[in-house]
Design goal:
The structure is a single chain. The protein is an alpha/beta fold and about 290 residues long. The protein has 2 domains: about 110 residues, Rossmann fold, CATH 3.40.50; about 140 residues, Rossmann fold. The protein is about 40% helix and about 20% strand. It contains 11 helices and 12 strands. It has a 6-stranded parallel beta sheet with strand order 2-1-3-4-5-11. A 4-stranded parallel beta sheet has the order 7-6-8-9, with helices on both faces. A two-stranded antiparallel ribbon has the order 10-12. It is elongated and about 60 Å long. It starts with a helix and ends with a helix.
Length: about 290
């Protein structure tokens, strides 16, 4: 190879390195950290890599340890605690798949709550069942006050909030909330909506031809009618927001509910109760247009 050819080859190499350098410098290491390996982690890894080619995603679990990249973003999946040694090496820790209540005891830089916000679920109920009296069963006075703080003057008269502590009996509380309501809006509270109670709640409400909205997608299979829901693609999108803003502005987005979501429904429940099924695309656009 003569000198001229060597110079051309060197030039090509330098150009290639120069083109790759910005992408390399902008690459972000993300570590998904959880107790155990699961299909959910693999799926989330794929969703994040689809969001940006600059993301290098590693999964670290107790049953599958891996090399931990320095200056990476830790995405803590669930409410487990992150090893302090990992925290020291990381740019920051972001919690996902945690409830608002669980996150109160976690001191991470940011978080994405797993449950939908009550305000969004209420707005969904009002869109699907306009001018209806909406029943809400809550655990105690504190939760009632938290809900009432979120209401607008127009919403307050439409809500019938009943406390479980008034009777300390689920059947009595259900009767009280359903007798003066057209639809039951479930709150994300395991003290009421759990695997032991859900069958009783659904049977009682549907006997009175009162439909249950929410409290989350998980209850649709059991017999709830409709809910908002943030899937893994939505979580990956929000994680991208958090990381991008920190990279560009040096600030963390506050922990909170995911602004990205979809609306899901159980058409069989709707048909059995003779409910006109909404157009989900139109309903989603209308909901997001208000936010």
């Amino acid at each position: 190879m003569n000198l001229k050819s060597c110079k051309k080859l060197l030039y090509k190499i330098l150009v290639t390195v120069w083109l790759l350098l910005p992408a390399f410098l902008c690459a972000e290491d993300i570590v998904l950290m959880a107790n155990n390996m699961s299909p959910l982690l693999l799926n989330l890894k794929s969703k994040l890599e689809q969001q940006s080619q600059n993301f290098t995603v590693t999964i670290v679990t107790q049953d599958r340890p891996s090399t931990f990249p320095n200056s990476s973003y830790i995405v803590s999946v669930g409410s487990h605690s992150v090893n302090p040694l990992f925290r020291e090496k990381a740019k920051g820790v972001i919690s996902i798949l945690v409830t608002e209540k669980q996150n109160r005891g976690i001191s991470n830089q940011s978080a994405i709550y797993v449950e939908p916000p009550f305000e969004r679920q209420l707005r969904l109920t009002q869109e699907v069942f306009p001018n209806s009296k909406i029943g809400v069963l809550v655990a105690d006075q504190k939760q009632k006050e938290l809900i009432e703080k979120t209401l607008t003057p127009l919403q307050s008269p439409l809500l019938n909030v009943v406390k479980l502590t008034d009777s300390n009996n689920l059947n009595v509380a259900l009767f009280d909330v359903l007798k003066d309501s057209d639809v039951l809006l479930g709150v994300y509270d395991k003290r009421i909506y759990n695997s032991e109670n859900i069958k009783n709640i659904l049977i009682t409400s549907y006997r009175q031809q009162k439909v249950l909205v929410g409290p989350s997608k998980a209850y649709l299979k059991a017999g709830s009618f409709i809910s908002t829901y943030s899937n893994l693609s939505h979580i990956a999108e929000r994680l991208t927001d958090i990381i991008s803003i920190y990279d560009s502005e040096g600030r963390w987005l506050d922990e909170g509910y995911n602004p990205y979501y979809e609306i899901v429904l159980n058409s069989q429940v709707g048909n059995s109760l003779n409910i006109l099924l909404p157009d989900l695309n139109l309903l989603t656009k209308k909901m997001k247009g208000v936010e």
